[in-house]
Amino acid sequence: MKTKHLLLFTITSVFICACSAQTKISQSIELPKEWKFHKGDNPQFSQPNFDDTKWEKLSVNGFWEPQGLTNYDGFGWYRTKVVIPSYLKSNTEIIKAVRITLGKVDDTDDSYFNGQKIGSMVGWDFERSYLLPYNLVNWDKENSIAVRVTDFGGGGGMHSGPHTVTRIKL
After folding, report:
1. Is the preceding omega at residue 151 within 30 degrees of 0, hence cis?
2. Is residue 77 within 8 Å of 148, Cβ to Cβ?
3. Among 44, 47, 93, 163, which is least packed, fewest CB within 10 Å?
4. Please, are residues 36 and 56 in contact by the beta-carbon 8 Å criterion?
C-alpha cells in the first residue's frame, strides 16, 4: 500500500512540476537581439517578402551611433523574422491578441507586423508596446517585423529592451 501511495505521489509531483514549467515557458518569447538594419527610407521595407539579405546587423539594445552610424540623424529601418508559437494564444474568447514589445526607440517609430502597421509613437525614452491581433499572426510559421525609425538628433535607433511577444492576461 505504501508503494502505491509513493508511486501516486511521485507521478502527481512530476505532473505538477511539468505543468508549472509549461506555464512559465508559455507566457512569452524573446525576439532576437540583433536585427537587419538599413539607412534611408522606403515603404517597401515594411513588406514581409522584402529582400534584406544584404543589410547589416545591429543590436536593438544600443543606439545606432556607437554601432558605426556616427553622427547619423534621419531614417533607418530594422527588420527581423520570428516564429510565434500557437501556445501563446489565450484560452479566452475575449482577448484575441498578443502583445509585442519593441523596447525603446530614439526618436519615433512606425512599426509593422507582416506588412501591416501596428503602431507608432514619438519619444526617445518610451517603451513601444503594441497589440497583435490573432489574424495578423502566422502561428508556428515565420512572421516579419519591421520598424521605421526617425532620429532627429542624439544616439538614434532601437536602443533598449525588452523585446518580446507575450500572452495577454485578463
Report:
1. no
2. yes
3. 93
4. yes
